[in-house]
Amino acid sequence: MKRELFDFINTDLQFIRGVGPVLATRFNDVLGGRRVLDFLLHIPHSVRNRGITECVMDAMYGDTITIPLLVKSHKVGGTFGRGRRRPTQITCADKTGQLVVIQFFNSTYLDYWLKKLPIGAWRIVSGKIEMVTGRPTMSHPDFIEEMENADKIPTNQAIYPSGEGLTQKTFANVRDQIFVALPEKLNGVDNQTREFFDALRRVHFPESNDDLSPNAAYIAKLAYWELLAHQSAIAISRKQRMDEKNRRVVRPKKYDLLQKFRETLPFELTGAQNRTINEIFADMAADTPMMRLVQGDVGSGKTIVALAAAVKMAESGAQTALLAPTDTLAVQHFAKLKPMCDKIGIVCDILTGRDKGVARREKLTSLRSGRTRLVVGTHALFSVDVEYRDLGLVIIDEQHRFGVVQREALRAKGNNPDLLALSATPIPRTLSMTIYGDMDVSIINEKPAGRLPIKTTKIPMARVGDLVAHIRPQIESGAKVFWVCPLVDESEVSDMTAVQTRFDALKKVFTNVGLVHGQMDKKSRDAVMAQFADDNSGMNILVATTVIEVGIDVPRATIIVIENAERFGLAALHQLRGRVGRGNTQSYCVLIYGDNISPDGLKRLNVLCETDDGFAIAEQDLMMRGVGELLGTKQSGWIQYHFVDYREHRDLFRLASRAARDGEPDTWTRDLMYIFDCGVNVGA
Ligand code: ADP
Ligand code: MG
After folding, report:
1. pLDDT on residue 488
2. Which residues are placed with Cβ below 5 angstroms of ligand 2, an ion?
């Protein structure tokens, strides 16, 4: 790829005007990266029409409208009596004299709004219109402009899947700057590259929802390229694995420790666990390195299976690295694995970004000497200065959070080590071949004996009071509750309203309520999470956005409440539900839905109420997924393709895998592999 273009797409978003380090971090949370490239691959999910309406009576309630209004009066709100909040209301009139109320619930920027809407002035305002106590009302308009600046309001606004602390205006600003700078970087590039970036431009400036449908010409083009990149990477990886010089190291076979390990387990392994362990051991005995994915629902007991593999490695003198997606999860794994390793005499250690100085050096020495046989950690495991004496096995927990890049970086620390990936994300069987074409798959489809299915119910928002009354005695007898609120998408001012409001309300009823959300820094977030997990802290309700982590283990948490559950995708709901039901006590999941739930939303909730088999849910999801309806990508997806739609692009799958099998990838394909983050092992 041309240097200038390469540098440009790798520019950190914090260097875009109006972004800076804080917003760049928020972008990172939503995009899974913070480069211009990550932004380019993140496309709008819909288009909102903001054509001008003259009279509010022409609109349907629930519509987004753009309308010129004359400001008549201000009524400043605030907090009254026992914490009741009253909104600030600004009464306006449209051209026909019809009254419209603009209201704000959050007092933070009050002065700013009052100044933006001075009495006696005409303003053009855009937002969602609703009927509140008999009057047309707009809460937190998306745009307020002076009449001569009407063109600042986009007629067809691209709506991006967003996250906490990022407004649609921020997305539009970043997009505009990127596409202003791009043409210069494309000087002298070949036609394919130009075509690719042109397609990206088209999808970032859609004119209607049709432009964003899977079958729109430019989306389909991009989807094909994305598939070509993935399929080419898979083809290369498969070839390398079969290559003579990449044979695995043959190590001595012994089984004493393993026997001891089985004997020390406080329970019987399930049939599925035993089957999976046998599959893994067969791989370890073959002469090509293992590449196996173990899929199993949360709580199916993947960790023990992974440990069995590590024990076998240790016995043959080699080392195992277990890679977790976050510090918290690494600590949690370590706390579980260490005692088991101690019992059978395996040296187990942990290495994360928190380890510094002498302590860290000692850990590294022990790894280099081969004394440490099992190391649990985060990305720190593949820092440059980490060396292994004989890294035989790499285990990746929650594999979908690691790209091929990281996978290869860790593999490079050993001599063709075996690779075992664990995933709680069930992929429909029909798809796992195309997605994990280079991996063998084991499925743990059986839960440990005695595990009770989680009882799932759905209730309308109106019944939330009854729910709180119900929960109270449970809490008094020691239960812990996760209370999840969704982000408020696209809000101009406040993504925080939902969680904050719920937190305030619950605090009045219960004594020790915790709050975590994406705008807290990582440290305080972790601290609250740890407090909730600690049985002695007295904290028994945790109000959270979806930042509560996959895999977090709080055995006494037996209730999860998910507010506005209709806004989440099936995958996300299923994973959230997996936060409970980890012990042998009955657990409950309550899905609260809002007034505006769609038929599809209702269907999704019913699926959850009927089954807790992740694979069945994944198949259902595939059948009925309506992409535009769901919130940000993180809350919607299984495996994250940017442009590919499983249902609509089956032909493209076939085309791409055929093209990928034909010969060596050309320069353009290598560029694509770089762009789609699947090319490091080919030296691209
Ligand atoms: P996963 O990683 O698949 O979500 P874990 O490996 O963390 O699940 O196991 C969840 C819990 O179940 C752990 O406390 C573990 O000790 C326990 N467990 C695992 N296998 C069994 C089994 N066969 N019988 C009983 N309990 C088990
Ligand atoms: Mg796990």
Report:
1. 53
2. 551
593-607 pLDDT per residue, tens: 988 788 888 999 999
Nearest CA to ligand 1 atom 17: 301
pLDDT (0 to 100) of residue 499? 83
Determine the distance separating the centroid of ligand 2 and the alpha carbon of 303, expressed in angstroms: 6
Let me know the angle formed at the C-alpha of 347 by 346 and 349, rounded to the nearest 5 degrees: 135
Output the residue whose Cα is nearest ligand 1's atom 5: 301
Q: Which ligand is nearest to the CA of 271?
A: 1
Report CA(347)–ligand 2 centroid distance (Å).
21
The predicted-structure confidence for 287-341, as pLDDT tens digits, reads as follows: 888 889 898 887 889 999 999 999 999 998 899 999 987 788 899 899 999 999 9
pTM: 0.70
> For ligand 1, atom 2, which residue shows the shortest CA distance?
302
Q: Ligand 1: which atom is nearest the Cα of residue 270?
A: 23
- Give the Å distances, CA to CA, from 680 to 315, 412, 611: 32, 11, 40
What is the domain partition of the chain in residue ranges? 3-47+166-209, 51-153, 258-444, 455-611
Name the residue at shortest CA distance from atom 24 of ligand 1: 448
Q: What is the CATH number of domain 455-611?
A: 3.40.50.300
Statement: residue 487 has pLDDT above 70: no
Alpha helix segments (H runs only) across 316-428: 327-344, 357-369, 404-411
Mean of pLDDT values over 516-538 = 84
Among residues 518, 601, 600, 599, the alpha carbon closest in space to that of 564 is found at 601
Is it the case that residue 627 has pLDDT exceeding 90?
Answer: no
Report the separation in Å between the CA atom of 314 and the middle of ligand 1, taken as the mean of its atom positions. 22
pLDDT of residue 196: 97
CB atoms closer than 10 angstroms to residue 505: 15
From the CA of 265, the nearest ligand is 1
Ligand nearest to the CA of 273: 1
Sorted by sequence, the CB contacts under 8 Å of residue 674 that are 6+ apart come out as 1, 684
Rounded distance from Cα 301 to ligand 1 centre (Å): 4
Q: Which of 265, 293, 304, 332 to mutate to test the pocket of ligand 1 (most atoms within 8 A of CB)?
A: 304
Residue 274's Cβ-count burial label (10 Å; 0-12, 13-18, 19+) is middle
CA distances from 104 to 100, 382, 532 (A): 13, 49, 33
Which residues form the pocket of ligand 1, taking CB atoms under 6 Å from any ligand atom? 267-270, 273, 296, 298-304, 424, 448
Question: Is the separation of the CB atoms in 269 and 440 below 8 Å?
Answer: no
Q: What residue's CA is closest to ligand 1, atom 16?
A: 301
The yes/no answer on whether domain 51-153 falls in CATH 2.40.50.140 is yes
Looking from the CA of residue 297, the nearest atom of ligand 1 is 3
Q: Which ligand is nearest the CA of 307, by number?
A: 1
* Tens-place pLDDT, residues 155-189: 999 999 887 788 899 999 999 999 999 999 999 99
Q: pLDDT by residue (tens digit) across 226-237?
A: 989 888 887 887
584 pLDDT higher than 90: no
Dihedral sign for Cα atoms in the order 652, 658, 661, 667: negative
Query: Hey, do 258-444 and 455-611 end up sharing a CATH topology, with the first three levels equal?
Result: yes
Given a contact cutoff of 8 angstroms between Cβ atoms, the answer to whether 219 and 201 are in contact is: no
Lowest average pLDDT, out of 427-436, 462-471, 580-589, 627-636, goes to 627-636
> Is 638's pLDDT higher than 50?
no
Residue 183: its H or E element: helix 168-185
Q: Which ligand is nearest to the CA of 337?
A: 1
Share of the chain above pLDDT 70, in %: 87
The fold adopted by the segment(s) 258-444 is Rossmann fold (3.40.50)
Q: Which of 264, 267, 337, 584 has the most ligand 1 atoms within 8 A of CB, as the residue to mutate? A: 267
